[in-house]
Batch of 2 targets.
Target 1
Amino acid sequence: MTARLLSRSLLYAVLVLFAVVFLVPFYVLLVTSLKPFAEVSIATMWQLPHTIDFSSYRAAFQQLAPNFLNSVYLVVPATLLSALLGSLNGYVLSKWKFKGSEWVFTALLFGMFIPYQSILIPLIQTIQKIGLYNSIAGLVLVNVVYGLPVTTLMFRNFYASIPDSMIESAQIDGAGFIRVYRHIIVPLSITGFVVVAIWQFTNIWNEFLFAITITGHGQHPIMVALQNLAGSQVVHWNIQMAGALLAALPTMLVYILAGRYFIRGLLAGSVKG
Amino acid sequence: MNTQPTTAKRPLLPRTNAKRRLSKDQLLAFLFLTPSLLLIAVFVYGFIGWTGYVSLSQWNSIVPDLSWAGLDNYVQLFQTFRFQADLRNMVVFTILFIACVIFLGQLFAVLLDQKLKGESLFRNIFLFPMALSFVVTGVVWRWVLNPKTGVNLLLDDLGWAFGWYTDTSVVPGWSLFQIEFGMPIALIAVIIAAVWQMTGFSLAMYLAGLRGIPEELREAARMDGASERQIYFKVILPQLKPITFGVIVMMLHISLKIFDLIYTMTGPGANFVTDMPAVNMFDTTFQANLYARGAAIAIVLLLLVAVFIVPYLIRSRKGEA
């Protein structure tokens, strides 16, 4: 029994140690952002603030608020559109298979893995041609298109678990492609929509490469603005940290409120070995 | 749903109706899929083709010039000090990053599988960074690992202090072409940040895998008198091999195209000790306006990813068929 107690304690010790290490960045983020600038000195970096001070949040918010809104305008339509399209594609590719549909799906899936550098130059040329350069609408389009593979994959796997017999019996009743989708598939995939929406929301909110290449000043989403803020030599650490926290807030909240669905999305969006 | 009795009584007529209905539905299904397929055909395959074409052209200034250059851009690219350093960094980063993510993910999963108190708290601490952006991770870790301010303040008391991402040495530093080959010390800081963010992914995969192993397997092993440790090493871990494979594939394509973390945390670094091909591509194309050379870097990256991903995709297709 003592051996068991010992191994249990060891187990906890290892876990606590790693948990502390994992929490270090959060600790630094929080204590730094809550200090007034007078207190952000190198020597006291690890100490708790003497007085809780929100001035760095005010400063960060003033600088980042317009970009925060840009990100909201980007993420809402892009998430909804890519979930809807993914759902339709997944429905077709799981319940209306045709000759070669498996290969079509594989070709689609490849789009999930490509390094986006390999499409970036033509993408910018095209976005400029259709007049969407330096606009949130252009970013919505890009995020929807390159989100198609992963949302299709998620929904296809999700719909594979809906028994074909349900669809067949609806067809005997005379329900066609659209009615089956509306009355059987959609009601059964509310969870699927939640999982995909949370996953896409997180991805698009955090996306950086498209954001920095397709938008210029004024249209930058929050992540580009945060990088600019952190990249400038004159911005104080406490404001950088407050900015990082503001930029991370929406996805952190989603994780706190719906972590279970986030993890389901993570598993559904990864191809199994 | 009420089935119409006529369908049961007179199967002939409805069946032809059903047939017609079905082909109409199949057509509809096609119609709904078509826009997405066209988008992917253009935005993925068309654009890759176009990038490939640009990489064989002479477009190395602001003004597009698509006259033929053959493989010149590739030859010049591989001769640059920066790209050679990138390839070295990519190999080192990928191996260490994936090894750490797999080791820690598996370790945490096994530890959390022991029916602990507070399991969900630990799980959430390890998974939480997954919800953050690489940009946020980069900003925070640049501060934490800043040689003058960060953890060095704590390590100083122990008599250790590191240069972290400002250390430009390469160990052991064999000469190879123009670069020193070995472990660029500055990369360790970037690997720590990337592992911090991505360990949650492999932890989630392994936990799901462990939960999926039927209890009977463990029971049977216990009946045979195996110790808990033996059960883990002989029974459980071998079952997780496919998961390891899946984690490697997912992490590999993340590490090959890593951009935002480097861009935010360190930039290319002195002597390009923390540079990566994706960062190089961005600078080459959009700062230096060497579009054709940038396209060449992109195509090399794509080929690297494809070499690993395509066989995997085809295999999983066969597995399902």
Target 2
Amino acid sequence: MKYLLPLFLFIALAVFLAIGLNLNPREIPSPLIDKPAPAFNLPILATPEQRLSQADLKGKVWLLNVWASWCVSCREEHPLLIELAKQNKALLVGLNYKDEIQAANGWLSKHGNPYNVSVMDADGRTGIDYGVYGVPETFVIDKRGVVRYKHTGPVQPGDLEKIFLPWIQQLEAESA
Amino acid sequence: MKFLYALMLSLLVYQARADIEYRDFKQPEQEQAYQTLISELRCLVCQNQTIADSNADLAKDLRRQVYEMLQQGKSRQDIVDFMTDRYGDFVMYKPALSLKTLLLWLGPVLFLVIGLATVWVLRSKPTGTEEALSKEQQAKLDSILDKGDDA
């Protein structure tokens, strides 16, 4: 038995190391989950004289997708967002992060605009409030304005069916 | 050649620290607090650097945030709370001791204890293997040892 002890210790260590190696260090759990979505009141990209605040979205299930025209992996997830927009299941709000208004509008007209509305976070302060550290990021927010899920990095093929649509369905079923 | 070497070294030194913006502080304590804080906060983009060491955009924004909060008279704890509310404990290079970070803090001690316990178990006298030799075995052993002496 005692000769097996090193073997067990080795197996335990190997298991820990294997788990550690397979963790994604870029995936930082958001402390915002189950907390109210941080407040913002930002100019709308298409019509900068108008503003949108998170309070305007109360009573609706909405997704906040952080994007920028300079963000390479945003291009990767873009077709999926277009697909999501076509299904029209939830409001898709864009947070245009540290971008130039012309570059941002040009990007949308070139690649298509999946967003119901995009707001401009030119200096990145709202981004900091949402704990944004790697564009793109996507938050799922319920009818009460509470953040329920955060997706770091681009939305991957299959994520809509596996993650986002089930979340939207569940949150739509909840009362406001 | 020597010049080239010196140039390369100075480039390395230059690279080792991000260009720190010029900041105007009214009191030296405030500047001290700023320097301490930015070297304690982790850059979320380049995770093995502090925001003092990183040139990433986010690091610059967070340095600006720390500076502004200090200018507003916010305390160190206010700023730490602000950061952890948004980025979690991960943003601190030295996370506070809490239930969630307990394993992180006690882990090394825990492993040391496990290691020492293992050594102790393996070195403690094995039981049941030190039975006396039977008469027959003893005689055989003696004869082998005698022969060895003769040789």
